[in-house]
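Try this one yourself first.
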């Protein structure tokens, strides 16, 4: 009969095997951030220079680090929808990877416990004195 630890390990393994299937359903992923911007133009008589100003926009911008450099792109409404979906997919990817690390840590703890139980009882090993860096003759 399997122990509770072995049954728990089997459940962890089953959950870990589900994670690649979740990855296959993600689709495209993208990092970065999207901001909405409003701006003033260069025409002095434009309403964007009034008090209070009526700024031009909204303009959407995506910014991310690509190859160690900051990249910024202006986006259309359609691109904003697409990028947001891909960025949500990237967040889910991070969650799945984190869950795999957590499942692995739990499995490791169980396996180490089972290994300790299976190991024969041995005498404590004598601790060696640390080498003080003194030359030996």
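Now uncover the answer:
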């Amino acid at each position: 009969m399997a122990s509770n630890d072995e049954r728990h390990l089997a459940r962890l393994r089953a959950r870990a095997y589900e994670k690649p299937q979740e990855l296959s359903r993600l689709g495209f992923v993208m990092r970065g951030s999207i901001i909405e911007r409003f701006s003033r133009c260069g025409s002095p008589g434009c309403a964007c220079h009034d008090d209070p100003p009526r700024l031009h926009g909204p303009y959407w911008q995506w910014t991310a680090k690509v190859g160690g450099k900051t990249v910024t792109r202006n986006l259309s409404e359609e691109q904003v929808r697409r990028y947001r979906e891909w960025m949500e997919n990237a967040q889910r990817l991070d969650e799945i990877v984190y869950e795999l690390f957590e499942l692995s840590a739990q499995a490791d703890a169980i396996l180490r416990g089972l290994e300790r139980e299976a190991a024969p009882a041995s005498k404590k090993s004598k601790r060696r004195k640390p080498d003080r860096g003194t030359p030996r003759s």
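Discussion: The chain has a mean pLDDT of 88. The radius of gyration is 29 Å.
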